UniProtKB/TrEMBL annotation:
Protein's UniProt keywords contain Transferase: yes
Domain ABC transporter: 2-260, 328-542
GO MF annotation, one: ATP binding
Keyword Transmembrane: no
Coiled coil: 85-112, 562-596
Protein name: Probable ATP-binding protein YbiT
Amino acid sequence: MININNVFVKYGDRTLLDRVNLVIVERDKVGLVGRNGAGKSTLLKIIAGYMSPHDGNVDRPSGSTLGFLHQEMSLPKGKTVMAETLTAFDEVRRLEKQIAELNDEMATRTDYESDSYMKLLENFAEVNDRFQLLGGQTMEADAERVLTGLGFKASDMDRLTDEFSGGWQMRIELAKMLLQRPDYLLLDEPTNHLDIESIIWLEKFLKDYAGAVIVISHDKQFLDNVTRRTVEVELGKIYDYKAAYSEYVDLRKERREQQLAAYENQQRVIADKERTINRFMAKATKTKMAQSMQKQLDKIERIEVEQFDTAAMNLRFPPAPRSGQVALEAKNLSKSYGSLNVLDKVDLKLDRGDRVAFVGQNGQGKTTLAKIIVNELTLTGGELQLGHNVEIGYYAQNQSDSLHAKLTVLETMENYAPAEMRTQLRSILGAFMFSGEDADKKVSVLSGGERARLALACLLLRPFNLLVLDEPTNHLDIISKDVLKQAIKDYDGTLIVVSHDREFLAGLTDRTLEFRDRKLHEHLGDVNYFLEKRQLDNMRDVEISQSSGKPKTAIAEAPPKKELSYEERKRLQRAISNAEKKVEKIEEEIEAVEKIMSNPEFYMQDDAAEITKKHADLKAALEDAIEVWELAQLEMMEYE
């Protein structure tokens, strides 16, 4: 096990970690959570031995292995993807050489009964077991399996790592680490550069991983699917919960409510005792009794309410000016980079108020199409027309990186703001957690999360009715993501959002466009409906089964269906939504009635027969509502 003992870290007058203690046991699956800047990455670096605390220590079993994926990693150049990945097996190759040497020695020895020969056999068995455990017999097959799971194609294996972006190089580092199978696997934001398919694959891998995993992530669904324990870092302290993220949120709320209630009760008791002591002190005959009561009161162990960080940005998009009925329309749109064709004669139409998610593997054209829409890239073929009075608000994937490093926070806002907004800039910055002297900080000293908040603040300075967001949750902590999601839900214009965060996308859009094989594949509903409809936990399964010649899924074999008009789609979608709401409402009513009927004395009541009949009627109504829902779903499926 790993023991973190009394670890203390302080920078200037700010205590980042205040005498924290933590134990990580074998096969632990731990989510490390907290606000940006709370000290999560620092704690992970201390556990990994990449930095030393100002006080305290970390004990790890001698001989144990540890892998640490962090944001500053870089690959050596000049190797192919497969060759670089196979460096994960350096220990296996050493063991392979050692096994060969031991085999040679055993072949020449004849002293089979000697102690030294027995020792030689034991040594061979240990080395061979370790060789098998680390995948010595299946190195290349394992490497290809993990690389494929993380999104690489067969054609990528012989390409040089130099040809790939930083995000893809990080995937290679992650693949190497997973193949090494360390006893303790430390991952700092592993999903940052992964698409939905790869995230789902990684979830499954980590869930079954034989060692301990400690992961920092702002992806709530990923944490729920991987971890069984949550460690919160907040204001220098850590709080340990034996639960995955969603359950931890409920437990934390419950703990804080209980703590506050206990504190308030104690304060009332103390106030009552102090009033009594004051009254007794005023009477000479009761002074001794008052002094005795005061001593007892002084001995009471006072309950303290833990401090916690409640700061959150206040984000609300400006009302959208009215646009024409058609927000944008693309016909036969194509985009190529040299000989690489990314989008091939795709069509897209958005009506005013549509809310669309772009999903799919990295490199399939999601960001390309977003940039074409906002006029940052030109078309190779086809046409794209914006509707009447359409004004675009655009948040790029690297928006925070485009901010001028030498400017202050306030100067950055002034560069984006129209003249009439200048007097409001400081109050807007305050709403985004830049208060007082923060406005005079240089952009260069801001953290990734602070830059992301500043970029969002700049976005709000002008009205727009077509909001295009490309990976807007990058660098945002979970609280900020929740605030952003609510603001997008309240936004009344047309929306396009590119994201790999399933929890963030859930319930946010009513159409999902999957980018695959240079085409757009449309699905009504949000990302969860899309994943369910595809009947895939890993969306890459269809591509793999088709390319390998295996039998295709029923979805892949389905014959082409008659085209459904936009109005018919909307009608069916409304019918499904209304049916779902009716089912939920009836189920709530049934639950309320059954709660009444669960009373042991229920049948003694005068209105028991009436309530029993109501229960039967509700059950029948539920069956009817479910049938309506099923019929609407079936009708939709016929066309999809």
